[in-house]
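Consider the tokenized backbone below.
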């Protein structure tokens, strides 16, 4: 069986808890999606899970309405694998990136998405959220401490896409 792409993070005891929590969150979301009809999977994700309380996030009211009808069966199905006592559902719609009434807080980089990234983002996928974060038009400077931490991380990583991405990040910020 192939190693998980983030297994290298677990070598550090400081990161192991975060990685374990992220893997658990992903497994819970996978369990949730296995119980949902295919059309609802992109519009629903796990928000928080604490002390038996599961919070689901729906991308719009239509998805939330459909999921609300499924809550009893979702709770039953998830309880087979997870210690969940209750499920709460909230709507957190995707907001448009640029609107005339929306003002960006001072010091926060704005982003522009390519059409393909917009479609991924609108679908609420992890890839869409990553594309949104990666495709910024204004660049914020990294502190010397952040650059040093990224440099150290790059040196500890095995060769691969993440190490290459860090190499490019460092090269970009050293040029500017």
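A designed sequence for it:
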């Amino acid at each position: 069986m192939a190693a998980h792409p983030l297994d290298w993070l677990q070598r550090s005891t400081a990161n192991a808890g975060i990685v374990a929590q992220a893997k658990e969150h992903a497994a819970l979301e996978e369990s949730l999606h296995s119980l949902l009809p295919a059309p609802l999977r992109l519009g629903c994700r796990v928000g928080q899970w604490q002390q038996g309380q599961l919070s689901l996030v729906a991308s719009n009211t239509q998805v939330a309405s459909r999921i609300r009808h499924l809550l009893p069966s979702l709770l039953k199905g998830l309880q087979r694998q997870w210690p969940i006592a209750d499920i709460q559902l909230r709507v957190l719609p995707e907001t448009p990136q640029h609107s005339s009434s929306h003002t960006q807080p001072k010091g926060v980089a704005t982003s522009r998405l390519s059409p393909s990234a917009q479609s991924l983002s609108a679908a609420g996928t992890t890839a869409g959220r990553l594309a949104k974060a990666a495709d910024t038009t204004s660049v914020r400077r990294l502190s010397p401490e952040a650059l040093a931490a990224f440099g150290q991380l790059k040196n500890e990583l095995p060769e691969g896409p993440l190490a290459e991405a860090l190499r490019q990040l460092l090269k970009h910020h050293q040029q500017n």
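Helices lie at 13-35, 38-41, 61-79, 115-122, 126-134, 144-156, 161-175.
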